[in-house]
From TrEMBL:
It comes from the Bacteria. Residues 131-309 form the FtsK domain. The lineage of its organism: Bacteria, Bacillati, Bacillota, Clostridia, Eubacteriales. SUPFAM superfamilies: P-loop containing nucleoside triphosphate hydrolases. This is FtsK domain-containing protein. GO terms for molecular function: ATP binding; DNA binding.
Length: 392
């Protein structure tokens, strides 16, 4: 600053005054945060767009030497300065920063999710409402999804949302639910395979491994490296989703089966969604390795930064407001505050009942019988066109 010439100084001063004029608080907060954080290599705000009364977008150029990943880590700082939710993303060379100053509400109904809009996805489900609007993702892309957080902050509700989104919109999917509380998912009995006796979990996982091996052979014979290629050729193979509500309650001796499914299941359409209060490595010896398999993660309110880091590898969930259903969603570099939609199981049951769907695939796996897991491989006419999703 001392070496600046007077004209530069006046220009800086005018810029400061211009940014700090009335109604420009968000812009000023973003600019001030950049000023405070960077001395020489300063990111440059090239454009500010007002998306709505409480939503702003900034287009930012980063100077050479400052990486996107590094800048994105400052999201919480910008959020503190603007008092809003901040999402930084990258499109080509330009960085986009979305700031929404309106607080997320404490509850959003499940009815906001309209699966019809996401026909291009295999297993769409709403991750939650964010500053950018409703975030919807395809479970098959993760390929496994993890939910953590203190008791009573919304993990099971998250699982209801995921299970019902799948059952309502891809009813041919085989959903198996490990439900240690035995009452949480009983309403889905018959549409999904609900396992509430922990001594049966080992058999379930063993049989899923058998299905996986069987499917691998089928894909190999059809020269397909993964299920998506197989479906594109108009063969039928329903996705399988294993939901585990409270991972810590799993018996110790199922780890090998679980580990194999986590590693290889995705290629044959097996996806795991697991929830737990505290994913400590004491509970699971291999948790560090297993965690890496859950590319999509969500943490509801946690007790402290340590727990947040265990779930998300950052401490953002420790600073969430104590609101049920509020969470940090993380997938790769994407890290957003969301409010998970709320789905009352009674409502879910009504929706399922009102749909006139023939549940043709209910339980491919009988836990008490010898294995007979796979539906026969069938060839379908190609006339339906090249839809991306599995054929109904
Ligand atoms: N997204 C949400 N929006 C509004 N309210 C919610 C939401 N999620 C959960 N709740 C409320 O919080 C209560 C507890 O949620 P939930 O049972 O899902 O917690 P949990 O994390 O599974 O707890 P536990 O670890 O004890 O199983 C719900 O009964 C509901 O009233
Ligand atoms: Mg629960």
């Amino acid at each position: 600053m001392e070496n600046q010439n007077p004209i530069e100084e006046i220009r800086e001063g005018l810029k400061y005054l211009w940014i700090h004029r009335n109604g420009n608080e968000v812009h000023a907060a973003v600019a001030d945060t950049i000023e405070a954080k960077y001395l020489k290599l300063k990111p440059l705000i090239v454009k500010k767009i007002k998306l709505a009364d409480n939503a702003f977008r900034f287009l930012i150029n980063l100077p050479a030497g400052l990486g996107y990943a590094e800048f994105k880590k400052l999201e919480p700082l910008f959020a503190d300065a603007t008092g809003g939710s901040v999402d930084i993303s990258k499109h080509g060379k330009t960085i986009t920063m979305d700031v929404m100053t309106e607080e997320l509400k404490a509850s959003y109904p499940y009815s906001l999710f309209d699966a019809g809009q996401y026909g291009g996805m295999y297993l769409p489900f709403p991750v939650g409402m964010s500053a950018k609007g409703l975030i919807v993702r395809d479970l098959t892309e993760y390929p496994h999804f993890f939910l953590g957080g203190e008791t009573n902050y919304g993990k099971s509700n998250g699982l209801h949302v995921i299970a019902n989104s799948i059952l309502l919109h891809r009813p041919e999917t085989f959903v198996a639910i490990v439900d240690p509380k035995s009452t949480e998912f009983s309403y889905l009995d018959g549409r999904a395979l609900v396992v509430d006796e922990m001594n049966k979990v080992g058999v379930l996982l063993m049989k899923l491994n058998q299905v996986m091996d069987e499917r691998k052979k089928i894909l190999k014979a059809a020269h397909c490296v993964k299920i998506q290629k197989y479906l594109e050729k108009s063969y039928e193979m329903p996705f399988i989703v294993l939901i585990i509500d409270e991972w810590a309650d799993l018996p110790d001796d199922v780890q090998e089966h679980l580990w194999r499914l986590l590693r290889m299941g995705r290629f044959v359409g097996i996806h795991i969604v697991a929830a737990t209060q505290r994913p400590s490595s004491k509970t699971f010896e291999k948790f560090g390795d297993m965690k890496a398999m859950f590319y999509g993660r969500m943490s509801f309110v946690v007790a402290d930064e340590l727990n947040s880091r265990m779930i998300l590898d950052n401490d953002r969930a420790a600073h969430l407001p104590a609101i049920k259903g509020r969470a940090i969603y993380k997938c790769g570099l994407e890290c957003l505050e969301v409010q998970m939609l709320y789905l009352d199981p009674e409502e879910a049951e009504k929706m399922l009942n009102s749909q006139n769907i023939a549940y043709k695939v209910v339980n491919h796996i009988e836990l008490d019988e010898s294995p007979k897991m796979l539906p026969p491989r069938q060839r379908f006419a190609l006339s339906a066109g090249k839809g991306r999703g599995p054929k109904h």
